[in-house]
Each structure stands twice: as C-alpha cells, then as structure tokens.
Design a protein that fits this description.
17-stranded mixed sheet, alpha+beta, globular, two-stranded antiparallel ribbon, Diaminopimelate Epimerase, Chain A, domain 1, 2 domains
C-alpha cells in the first residue's frame, strides 16, 4: 500500500459543540450510502466515527441539499448542528454571509453571526400532535409518557420529533437506560429524540440528549430548539434563553411568528479520504 496516495472519497470531519459529522460533498459526484455503509463510516473503531453522516448535494431551490444519516443508518429530516456546519462551508465557498440549505424538513436560512458563530432560522416549531407526530390526538404540551424517573414530557417537532422532560438535576438522569425506552415508546410512530432539562436559576436551561438513531450525543441543535419551546410553553423561561449542553451552549430564540432561531459555533476537525472499502 502506498500511504501517500489514498484512493477513495474525500470528506470533512466537523462538529457543533461535540455533535460530530462526516461531511461528504456530492454536488459534482453523487454518493448514496446505504445503511450498512453509513454504519461503517460512523463506527468509531473501524470507520471515521461520527453521530451523523451528512451528504451535500445539488438543490434547485437552495445553495445545497443536505441529507442527514444517523449513525445507525436511518435518515432524518433535520439536524441543527449539521446545518450550521454545512452553512459555514457554503458561506466560505461563496464569500457571502448567508446560505440557504434545503432539507427533508424544508428550506433553512443561515447567516454568519460573528466570531465563528452561525445563526440558523430552523423554521416554525410544530406543536400539533399530527406534526410531531404522535400516535393519537392529544395536547402536546403534556404527554402521557414515563420511563424510570421521567414523566410528563412536552412534545415538539423541529422537523424531527422531540420529547422534552423537565427534571431537578439533568446530570443525575441515566440517559443510557431511559433514552431507548422513550425513543421507542408507542406514542411516537417515528420514534423520538429525548431531552432531559433542568431549569437554571439564571433563566438558562441545562439539557442532555438521547438522539434517535445515534444515542447519547454531546449536543443536539434541534433538541435545544425544542427544549426552549417546551419550556416557554410551560412558563419555565422566556422566549429567549441559553441552552447549556454537554458540549457547550446555544442561544435559542422563539420568535412571535413561531420560527426558532439557533445561534452557535462550528468547527472543522480534519479532512481525510474514505477508503474505497467503506463505500458502496
């Protein structure tokens, strides 16, 4: 093997607050990883290792289309941290201070926010039971779901479903035990992301997350948005707050028109080339 001339597919390893991604540019040369290939790339021992594999492809209505594949190979419609990362790449490439990204959940507008920060309009929070979706009609502010010490979550969709539980101490919750139980609860026909949230004395929110299809991650942008919305609906905070995750903080604002703005950092870890053995 000639170690200086690898053959395969170039990629970027990026992260937003430790929520990490393998980003593949498919605008000039298409790539459609199947579930097994995605799992191989995401494997932290034998692949690159990531929470999600991100495919950037052409879009007729935006600067690019972003496909989001979880580490287990499943596809999802939204990922806030990945949106910031892809937006940063597109803005650097174009020299502009804004970018529009098409996702399964719709068009997302992103703008540079200074000092390595990117602000994304994540679109409106969806609160109707059909939009989350839930298995039957109910008030999404209080869901009849319980697992271990968790009960009475709020339901929110940010293009993907979230169950937000409020607890006295977010750090004390055994997410590895209760996360899978809630993710696969029959009330959620498409499974759900799971947030445990502690309301802080300064008005901020401390959040930990079990991501659908990925497990415990250090950050979840859509989860932070859902957390702010669920907390504000219950009068636990205002419509703007800092959400503190394991990997750092995101600034979240729920506008009067229903749209949720997320501001946070992005980082490039390294560039590399996927081995041809990992590709379909």
């Amino acid at each position: 093997m000639n170690m200086m001339t690898p053959h395969g597919r170039p990629f970027l390893k990026m992260h937003g607050l430790g929520n990490d991604f393998v980003v593949l540019d498919a605008r000039a040369r298409a790539i459609v990883p199947d579930a097994a290939t995605t799992r191989a790339i995401a494997d932290r021992r034998t692949g690159v290792g990531c929470d999600q594999v991100i495919i950037v492809s052409p879009s007729p209505s935006a600067d690019a289309f972003m496909t989001i594949l979880n580490a287990d190979g499943s596809e999802v419609g939204a990922c806030g941290n990945a949106t910031r990362c892809v937006a940063a790449l597109l803005m650097e490439e174009s020299g502009r201070d804004h970018a529009t990204i098409e996702t399964r959940a719709g068009l997302l507008d992103a703008r540079a926010a200074g000092a390595g920060l990117v602000r994304v309009d994540m679109g409106p929070a969806r609160l109707d039971w059909r939009d989350i979706p839930l298995a039957r009609e109910m008030d999404s502010c209080h869901l009849p779901v319980a697992a271990g010490p968790l009960s009475d979550p709020g339901g929110v969709s940010m293009g993907n479903p979230h169950a937000v539980f409020f607890v006295p101490d977010a750090g004390a919750v055994d997410l590895a035990a209760v996360g899978p139980v809630v993710e696969h609860h029959p009330l959620f026909p498409e499974r759900t992301n799971v947030e445990v949230v502690q309301v802080m004395g300064d008005g901020g929110l401390r959040m930990r997350v079990w991501e659908r299809g990925a497990g415990i991650t250090r950050a979840c942008g859509t989860g932070a948005c859902a957390t702010l919305v669920a907390a504000a609906r219950r009068g636990l905070c205002g419509r703007e707050a800092e959400v503190v995750l394991d990997g750092g903080s995101l600034s979240i604002a729920w506008r009067d028109d229903g749209h949720v703005l997320m501001t946070g950092p992005v980082a490039l870890s390294f560039a590399g080339t996927l081995s041809a053995d990992l590709l379909p």
